[in-house]
Design a protein that fits this description.
By secondary structure, the protein is an alpha+beta fold. It is built from 5 helices and 12 strands. Helix 1 crosses helix 3 and helix 3 runs parallel beside helix 4. The longest helix has 14 residues.
């Protein structure tokens, strides 16, 4: 059963909360702006999925106020994830939510400055460049991701995961457009509309 998240309305949210499906939701995965908008509707209705165990946000910058807003409404931890399937890169927060652990078995991440020089020091933001090691059809070598990231820490995290970590990603920020009528359009919906327009 699918639900329309792009044109989310209070009525559609009420339909979701009245469904059997709502009672079974254990994980919500998606754009932070869309989940935040859903939470606004759920707050209005005074509802939350009773079996929900967590939320994973991806594809946009997870701002602190968005994370806390989602957590306040849903009552569970929100975890951040960064993924570039085409670039072979993936990173996600562990249980301690202390940086994003880089899954390095599919690709290589380089962080470079404005001149293209490699940045190895922690805390210095630079452009994320990805090389995919697993795409045999069309390998991407030194793929310009459009994201700015920084190395977070060398030491293992409290969770004991010893993979390299990056800090929160400064890229792909999407938000919500508020129309004069009060209607909201989440950025994923706007992206879909743009595909239908002639250039």
């Amino acid at each position: 059963m699918g639900y329309q998240w792009i044109n989310l309305t209070l009525e559609r949210t009420r339909e979701l909360t009245d469904s059997d499906h709502f009672q079974k939701i254990r994980l919500i995965y998606g754009y932070p702006s869309a989940i935040f908008e859903l939470c606004d509707m759920l707050r209005t209705l005074g509802k939350r999925p009773p079996r929900l165990r967590g939320v994973v946000c991806t594809a946009e910058v997870l701002r602190p106020e968005v994370r806390s807003g989602i957590e306040d409404v849903l009552g569970v931890h929100v975890h951040d994830q960064w993924g570039l399937n085409d670039g072979g890169l993936f990173a996600a927060e562990g249980p301690d939510r202390d940086g994003l652990h880089l899954f390095f078995m599919r690709g290589v991440l380089e962080i470079v400055d404005a001149t293209g020089q490699s940045i190895a020091s922690q805390g210095i933001p630079g452009r994320a460049i990805g090389t995919c090691l697993t795409n045999l059809a069309t390998p991407f070598v030194r793929y310009e991701t459009g994201d700015d990231v920084h190395w977070y820490a060398d030491a293992s995290s409290v969770s004991g995961i010893n993979w390299p970590r990056i800090g929160p990603v400064d890229g792909r920020t999407g938000d919500v457009i508020y129309l004069p009528t009060g209607r909201r359009i989440a950025m994923p919906g706007l992206t879909l509309v743009m595909r239908w327009l002639d250039a």
